[in-house]
Amino acid sequence: xxxxxxxxxxxxxxxxxxxxxxxxxxxxxxxxxxxxxxxxxxxxxxxxxxxxxxxxxxxxxxxxxxxxxxxxxxxxxxxxxxxxxxxxxxxxxxxxxxxxxxxxxxxxxxxxxxxxxxxxxxxxxxxxxxxxxxxxxxxxxxxxxxxxxxxxxxxxxxxxxxxxxxxxxxxxxxxxxxxxxxxxxxxxxxxxxxxx
Length: 196
What we know:
The strands form three sheets. The protein has a four-stranded antiparallel β-sheet, with helices on one face. Strands 8-11-9-10 form a four-stranded mixed β-sheet. A hairpin with a 6-residue loop joins strand 6 and strand 7. It is of the alpha+beta class. It is 22% helix and 35% strand. It contains four helices and eleven strands, in the order βββββββαβααβαββ. The protein is elongated.
């Protein structure tokens, strides 16, 4: 039985030419968000636990856990690591009240967002506009769309490899911070950009 708790693991079977046998092991890696899960595997009355990034264990029920140097990880798992897809990234851009002007902090994020989109081959980008609950719901739907359209113009298919940019307006629905009607909440005046 093998129990896996959200870790990033790699398993490798190395053929030992001289002995004619194979030595298999796994190594636990830090996940993309910086966390490390753990791997518990058992068989034939023994159990092995690996719960520290950069450590591995032989799959021969020896219960031995050992440090795996980065050079060995690169050698044994380089092709697998290189084939990992680029993970989606999400950015929140916030707006001044009542219009399409970005806050200064959000405007400063624009270069990073463009750089990130450039790292994704054939980027699939979702741009969703939101408002707070101040004002008429219909007008807020329109304002959220204007915000999303404005942000979508950052992703010029002539300058970067963009497959699709989907623009949606949620208006005052799907609030990030739940509020009552007619409530000014800066974190609800946003555009969510997801780059895949």
